[in-house]
Specification:
Elements lengths: L18 H10 L3 E5 L16 E6 L2 H16 L2 H8 L10 H9 L5 H13 L10 H17 L12 H10 L3 H11 L2 H9 L12 H15 L6 H8 L14 H12 L4 E6 L2 H5 L5 E5 L9 H11 L3 E11 L11 E3 L5 H5 L7 E7 L2
Parallel strand pairs: 1-2, 1-4, 2-3, 4-5
Antiparallel strand pairs: 5-7, 6-7
Helix pairs in contact: 2-5, 2-12, 6-8, 6-11
S-adenosylmethionine binds next to strand 2.
Length: 365
């Protein structure tokens, strides 16, 4: 076998906490939802409130396969088996290989998806691919460097059960100097281009330097979110999710059964679309909730300027669009939209990745 299947995965866990979007759909109850698929972990939880349709769109075939695999896991597995299959705590990705193989054989997958994962799992001897995406592997390198520089201090942030205790530690004992050095070393375009983006890292337009951006966002995160509950902070410092409280929204017990019910008993139609999002929006309409991920931060030129106008025909009146700007706030024509970000400020403050400037718009045309 020459091709390394696992090397084609970009995001195997993901880098957004879509608890925000989940809380929004619970409140707004949209019928038709569109989401950038990613690993499926960001998009499939948007089935929790029982929509009529969920469109998961991604340019990447592998990300759509991952989304299909996760959707089938929701249909077939108990939460316990879901955790075991993916290798979330209390399970390890490297353990339970035989059981994972047995569970995989229970899944009802399309031929393409089955073939892709049969090869991938054979290649990795039935461990979980949870941390094998390019993004996740990059952060395992980051975690190793942090451990080297911080030594025994590298995991101290994760021992607290109240924000008060965490803040006390952060203010008095956290190794700020070493942290600033690490952010200086790794929080920049050259580092991410070398390790991950191969020259395609976002063209930043926020005023802050990369160093200021990451330092400020980390500071905000530590002051608002328990590190024990943030899968992202755990990936950065520890290389993987080690606490039960840190398991991302995809396997949250409070919505797991609702997602399952939506797929198995509800009327939700799941559409897995491997295509450009702008191609998809031409074919669908009446979208009430549009989860754009941080995709717009990669746009430049006319695409950047016009993307909100180009998706408007597919939105229902009052349809809501969630944008997660990362380093680049789109210079975009917002005509016909109302900014409703403030209505969700409490949820945004608690987002557990903390690296995004989230903007929420409502179609008022
Ligand atoms: C920018 S990435 C970020 C990953 C995401 N934050 C997560 O947690 O999974 C989101 C996904 O968008 C997809 N993507 C980028 N541009 C796209 C486009 N124009 N249409 C559809 N998908 C796109 C990429 O293939 C990638 O899988």
């Amino acid at each position: 076998m020459t091709e390394k299947y696992f090397k084609s995965l970009n995001y195997s866990l993901g880098n957004e906490d879509t608890t925000l979007e989940v809380e929004m759909v619970k409140k707004l109850n949209p019928k038709k939802v569109l989401a950038v698929a990613g690993s499926g972990g960001r998009s499939l939880p948007l089935l929790c409130h029982g929509p009529s349709d969920l469109y998961c769109v991604d340019l990447s075939k592998e990300q759509i396969h991952l989304t299909e695999l996760r959707s089938s896991c929701y249909k077939e597995f108990s939460l316990e088996d879901y955790l075991l299959f993916w290798g979330y705590p209390p399970y390890e990705p490297e353990d339970n290989t035989r059981k994972r193989n047995t569970l995989f054989n229970e899944l009802d997958l399309s031929d393409d998806c089955k073939k892709f994962f049969s090869r991938l799992y054979d290649e990795i001897n039935w461990i979980s691919p949870l941390y094998l995406g390019k993004w996740e592997k990059t952060f395992q390198v980051v975690a190793k460097i942090i451990k080297k520089i911080m030594g025994s201090q590298h995991d101290k942030l994760f021992q607290f059960s109240t924000l008060e205790d965490q803040l006390d530690y952060y203010e008095k004992d956290f190794p700020h100097l070493r942290w600033r050095f690490l952010v200086f070393l790794m929080g920049n375009k050259s580092f991410f281009n070398a390790l991950l983006y191969k020259g395609h890292f976002i063209e930043k337009n926020v005023e802050e330097t990369h160093f200021e951006y990451y330092l400020k966002n980390f500071d905000h995160l530590v002051k608002n979110v328990l590190a024990k509950e943030s899968f992202f902070l755990q990936l950065v410092f520890l290389g993987k999710v080690l606490t039960k409280e840190g398991i991302p929204i995809e396997a949250d017990p409070s919505i797991f059964d609702d997602i399952k019910r939506s797929l198995n008993e509800g009327n939700a139609s799941l559409h897995l679309e491997q295509k450009d999002i702008f191609e998809l929006v031409k074919k669908i309409d009446n979208i009430d909730f549009f989860s754009f991920s941080d995709v717009p931060s990669y746009f430049t030129g006319d695409v950047e300027k016009n993307f909100l106008q180009n998706i408007r025909p597919c939105l229902s009146s009052n349809g809501v669009v969630v944008l997660r700007y990362y380093l680049r706030i789109s210079e975009v024509d917002e005509t016909g939209y109302q900014d409703i970000t403030q209505d969700f400020s409490n949820l945004i403050r608690k987002e557990k990745v903390g690296m995004y400037r989230i903007k929420i718009l409502k179609n008022i045309s």
